[in-house]
Amino acid sequence: MRIGMISESLEDYLEIIYNLIDEGNIARVKDIAARKNVSMSSVTPALRRLAKEGLIKYTLRSDVELTGEGKKLAARIVDRHEFVKHFLVSLMKVPEAIAERDACIFEHYMSPETFRRLVVFFEFVDTCGMDIRDRFEQYRRNMESTGASDPCTSPDCRNTEMGSRHRRRWGQVKTLLMLKPGEKGRIARIQAPGAIRQRLIDMGVLPNVEIEMKRAAPLGDPIEIKLRGYHLSLRKEEAESIIIFPAQIEIREPDSGSGEYYG
Amino acid sequence: MRIGMISESLEDYLEIIYNLIDEGNIARVKDIAARKNVSMSSVTPALRRLAKEGLIKYTLRSDVELTGEGKKLAARIVDRHEFVKHFLVSLMKVPEAIAERDACIFEHYMSPETFRRLVVFFEFVDTCGMDIRDRFEQYRRNMESTGASDPCTSPDCRNTEMGSRHRRRWGQVKTLLMLKPGEKGRIARIQAPGAIRQRLIDMGVLPNVEIEMKRAAPLGDPIEIKLRGYHLSLRKEEAESIIIFPAQIEIREPDSGSGEYYG
DNA sequence: GCTTTAAGTTAGACGGATCTAATTAGATGC
DNA sequence: GCATCTAATTAGATCCGTCTAACTTAAAGC
Ligand SMILES: [Mn+2]
Ligand SMILES: [Mn+2]
Ligand SMILES: [Mn+2]
Ligand SMILES: [Mn+2]
User: Fold this and answer.
1) What's the burial of B202, exposed, middle or buried (CB within 10 Å: 0-12/13-18/19+)?
2) For chain B, what are the domain ranges?
């Protein structure tokens, strides 16, 4: 349990009581039980614990009231719940039901520092004038339709073998266009749809292949690269759609070399 | 506990075992206990539970090994831990130690959907060519130095009274510049430093004040607004730095009207 | 090979959070 | 005013995760 605080479970009870009252109902054991999906006989001891912490006023068989302290804590939890949910739904486009679940857990554990920064970031996104929401949505859709099936790039990739190169590295991501002449990288994904994507694949631009930036023409177009020993010329948009794995972190040799890997 | 999965505590044991082995050590009870900050006698039953789940190979008094299943689950947790931490540190600028703590909790609870989207968003930030990292950092710094003390805007504001207008609403945030002629809003913060900030404050542009956009000149500058009954003319940059509370959500009347509020 | 010591386990306890089954208190009906 | 019904509580159990204290094992010293 979080030191100096009440447990996640108790916080949820408090949140439910707050919401019930806020909605104009009275907070009865039965309704609390229903919302938390527990039996009534679990609610009674929970109320006792909350009362012991001075967060509610509880007398046997009468409806529950929040104390000043209780209101404050409950409001704080609800506040976080609503923010996180809104963040996930409106910006990250997480499905509502899932965002609801995630929010109702993060609300208990997120540090004030992280919370504050997410709030500021959220505000930044809307006020910086860069249209981040729409641009991201476009990127995401594109990614879902093109890159979702790439092995080891999907977040649910599990072919992580210990000591091998199979764990992902989370350094800053780059596009091929960002590499300096002479700089090398390993391809993570191609973030481009349809014809461009196909053309690149035909030229051998595939995940896990090593690629080297040779030079860019004065205006940044075309770009000369080296790949599997060949030299190729790419247009700027093409280079921009090739995502490179972050390479800052040293990769250790796998105990038993197994050919294909990434990292 | 998360349905069909092991508890947070067990996942942490698994993660610790993984890390110990990954670092070239052997996973001994003593070291596991030290990392998890529990007594050795707490580790033994935990190992038994992990063994029962088929995640480790455990024989009394000999060092612990991960099974294939165990490695996969552990790597998944470590993967998430590292991503979340990196996200918080490198983008949100959460202090390392705090990000570490947050990450080591979210790793257990974040839904795959949320995780996947955060990963994509992280990639988007670096590859969209909009320089989001630097711009956000500038915004954040600015906010910390100017707006951090605004009551009720700071995430740790607790003067949330139930049934009153004191809970924050998390709709999309706007700047004054984004309001259409005739549209009203309530000021949340001034996101501007130094002289500009002072000038606005002197004119009565303060948090919680209602403000109305009257009209903008053809090129967006100057802008005419109404505030406390006065008409004022602002420059574009000034209007851009005035953050307006989201107003989409209906606010209910407080039971006992108390003058100052926001929402 | 005996002794010492460190590592690991077991025994026994506790608090939190849940359950089912049994009981009690109040409100409702008539 | 008593019978009935529903809401709430209590009793008693279980599992998890932790603790301290006592014990056992095995390695290290000599
Ligand atoms: Mn919750
Ligand atoms: Mn919640
Ligand atoms: Mn953890
Ligand atoms: Mn962790």
Assistant:
1) exposed
2) 8-75, 78-170, 174-246
Helix, strand or coil for residue A176? helix
Q: What is the pTM of this model?
A: 0.82
Q: Which ligand is nearest to the CA of B19?
A: 4
Compute the count of residue pairs across chains A and B with CB atoms less than 8 Å apart: 196
Give CATH superfamily name and number for A174-246. Ferrous iron transport protein A (FeoA) (2.30.30.90)
Helices and strands counted in chain B (H then E): 9, 8
Cα A148 to Cα A151: distance, rounded to the nearest angstrom: 8
Contacts of B74 in chain A (CB under 8 A): 162
Distance A173 CA to ligand 4 centre (A): 22
* DSSP label of A27: B
DSSP state of B87: I
In whole angstroms, what is the distance from residue B92 CA to residue B95 CA? 9
Whether B232 contacts B203, CB under 8 Å: yes
Summarize the confidence of residues B116-137 as an average pLDDT.
93
- Chain B residue numbers with beta carbons less than 8 Å from the beta carbon of A106 are 106, 109
CATH architecture of the domain with range B8-75: Orthogonal Bundle (1.10)
Contact B114 A93 (CB under 8 A): no
Say which range, A239-253, B101-115, B169-183, has the weakest mean pLDDT.
A239-253
| Nucleotide C30 C1' to residue A25 CA (A) | 30
Taking only residues 224 to 243 of chain A, the set having a beta carbon closer than 8 angstroms to any beta carbon of chain B reads 240, 243
